[in-house]
Q: What sequence folds into this?
């Protein structure tokens, strides 16, 4: 029997109660702990290779193994690229007698093991593991998959009866996860969502009887028509099955719902990485859209990363004839702490492309253990400056020319949160050259589409601690106050590849607008309370709770708090409270739009988790109340 969308929604509620994740009546009540995902093997963004961008469904065992070999032989494996992931195309069918998945042995010959099993990926994963690498597999959260939905003429679509062609996890989650991880020994799974998006009763192929209907839970164009709790509950089932099947915790769970279903709010509590946009293509403008969709530093942490999609270095606008663009794409992904998954046929890769993918300094930026995704320090249509605080106190800084005109840019010590009077040294991470030290500011020249990227060393503007905006990897917007999820209007609408200009285009699906931001309001305004501007701080909506990992390393929390001048609701009264490991440390007086910021200071010696709660009097937030934690910092004295 098919489970209806309504019933799946019901499962969400039950799961919530038994798992405790949604059990608290008051979402702003302190939990005294860090609640974003730390399970799985994603303390750093995953690195490796995936078959999709290189081969689509025309994948073969030989192509995958040759790429794995190239990764080892070229030295990329030693630099951290270790997951070898098969994407769509591997499946033949689901055996209806017992529901076991059958591998397409015509393209994965080693899977033809015979006997009762019939097919097994174990010989394949054994070979990958013997090379010192890890193996990844691909599935869908629905009954059917993406190529069945969008590429009816692609090679290697599942075969057989309607039921046999239902190769996704839907109704088989425990069985499939046990098979993939327990029996076949995979280490990574990417779970797509086309099966709950594209097989509604109106679909032509469903009407023709090719596929069974599944009431879509995701409407990619309209968040209002998406059943967010139901989507979350299905992905949570996978997370639970992965935990059960992998008691050693050696797995990675990649959520591929393209930023839909409000994954901004919950994916970091469920999976290790989550796509923030629809598929990247090898075009400059699409790369920009994917990059922009991941501009959410506070939603990425060790254990749970923003995923702007796999690398397209080597193809189209990023091929060996477009090395400036390829370098920009790679550098930007490293700044975002994005997963670095190569999508190129490495069997004959030109050396300049291998050099980009193998740039150890940029890999180190991506993999920095602090896990701080870069924050925008300067933002225009043409030039952006991104700054990522590294674990050694240095900054990685990328100066990015999005446009087609060469331009000169002034980089200031302030962009880096370095003191203006002390010397700043820049090491170019492309050339290895160290530039003459500057103080205050320096001028840089950018070619069209160029990204300069440096390791910057200087004296910190805040010598005795860190601003929270410098450590997004330690800040979890457990509740960000967004009541009505909205697509981010700053992300460009794309032409759909299948519809061209006869379609109405592809609006951004990532409902990040209004989410918590570092050094900006949730709507990307400058932080400002009663006319006073804050160069740093956290911007969030009222009725929010931010968790901060202090890890007993700091002694004091300080901030200047108030309702931001950009607030929509100008009447709401907001109270700001600071908790240390669940205990109230300090609280503000209720404050409104137009009132001067109040200074909060709390002793956090020995505190592991600080929680910052901004509670509005109007719980509904229909017209959002914007609040600012100005100059918010953890201090060591
Ligand atoms: C979706 C995903 C892609 C890829 C394809 C496979 O479009 O977003 O990354 O996995 O499906 O069909």
A:
């Amino acid at each position: 029997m098919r489970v209806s969308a309504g019933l799946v929604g019901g499962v969400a509620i039950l799961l919530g109660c038994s798992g405790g994740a949604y059990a608290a009546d008051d979402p702003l009540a302190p939990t005294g702990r860090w609640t974003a995902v730390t399970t799985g093997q994603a303390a750093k963004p995953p690195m490796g290779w995936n078959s999709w961008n290189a081969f689509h469904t025309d994948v073969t065992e030989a192509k995958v193994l040759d790429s794995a070999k190239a990764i080892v032989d070229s030295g990329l494996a030693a630099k951290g690229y270790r997951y070898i992931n098969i994407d769509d195309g591997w499946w033949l069918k689901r055996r209806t007698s017992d529901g076991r998945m059958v591998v397409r042995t015509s393209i994965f010959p080693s899977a033809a093991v015979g006997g009762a099993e019939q097919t097994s990926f174990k010989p394949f994963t054994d070979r990958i593991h013997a090379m010192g690498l890890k193996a990844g597999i691909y599935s869908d959260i629905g009954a059917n998959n993406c190529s069945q939905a969008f590429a009816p003429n692609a090679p290697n679509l599942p075969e057989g009866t309607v039921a046999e062609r239902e190769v996704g996890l839907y109704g088989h989650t425990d069985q499939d996860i046990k098979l993939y991880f327990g029996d076949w020994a995979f280490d990574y799974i990417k779970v797509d969502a086309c099966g709950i998006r594209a097989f509604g009763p109106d679909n032509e192929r469903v009407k023709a009887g090719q596929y069974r209907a599944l009431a879509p839970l995701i409407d990619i164009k309209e968040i209002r028509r998406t059943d967010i709790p139901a989507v979350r509950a299905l992905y949570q089932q996978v997370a639970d099955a992965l935990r059960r099947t992998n008691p050693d915790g050696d797995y990675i769970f990649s959520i591929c719902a393209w930023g839909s279903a409000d994954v901004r709010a919950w994916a970091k509590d469920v999976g290790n990485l989550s796509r923030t946009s629809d598929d990247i293509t090898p075009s400059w403008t699409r790369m920009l859209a994917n990059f922009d969709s991941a501009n959410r530093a506070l939603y990425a942490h060790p254990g749970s990363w923003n995923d702007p999609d796999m690398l397209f270095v080597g193809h189209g606008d990023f091929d060996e004839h477009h090395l400036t663009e390829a370098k920009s794409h790679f550098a930007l992904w490293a700044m975002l702490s994005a997963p670095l998954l190569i999508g190129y046929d490495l069997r004959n890769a030109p050396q300049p492309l291998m050099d980009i993918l193998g740039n150890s300094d940029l890999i180190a930026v991506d993999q920095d253990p602090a896990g701080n995704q870069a924050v925008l320090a300067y933002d225009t249509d043409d030039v952006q400056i991104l700054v990522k605080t590294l674990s050694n106190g240095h900054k990685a800084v990328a100066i990015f020319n999005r446009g087609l005109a060469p331009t000169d840019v002034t980089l200031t010590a302030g962009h880096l949160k370095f003191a203006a009077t002390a010397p700043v040294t820049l090491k170019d991470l492309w050339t290895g050259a160290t530039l003459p030290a500057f103080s205050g500011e320096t001028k840089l020249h950018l070619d069209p589409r160029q990204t300069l990227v440096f390791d910057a060393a200087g004296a910190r503007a805040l010598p005795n601690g860190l601003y929270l905006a410098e450590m997004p990897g330690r800040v979890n917007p457990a509740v960000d106050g967004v009541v009505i999820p909205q697509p981010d209007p700053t992300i460009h609408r794309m032409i759909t590849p299948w519809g061209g200009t006869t379609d109405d285009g592809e609006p951004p699906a990532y409902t990040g607008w209004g989410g918590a931001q570092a050094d900006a309001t949730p709507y990307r305004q400058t932080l400002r309370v009663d006319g006073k501007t804050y160069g740093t701080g956290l911007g969030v909506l009222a009725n929010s709770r931010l968790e901060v990992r202090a890890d007993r390393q700091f002694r004091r929390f300080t901030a200047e708090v108030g309702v931001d001048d950009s607030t929509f609701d100008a009447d709401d009264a907001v109270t700001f409270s600071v908790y240390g490991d669940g205990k109230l440390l300090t609280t503000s007086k209720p404050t409104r739009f137009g009132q001067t910021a109040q200074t909060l200071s709390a002793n956090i010696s020995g505190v592991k988790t600080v929680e910052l709660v901004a509670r509005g009097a109007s719980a509904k937030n229909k017209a959002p109340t914007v609040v600012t934690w100005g100059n918010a910092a953890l201090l060591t004295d």
Observations:
- The longest strand covers residues 626-635.
- The chain has 13 helices and 32 strands.
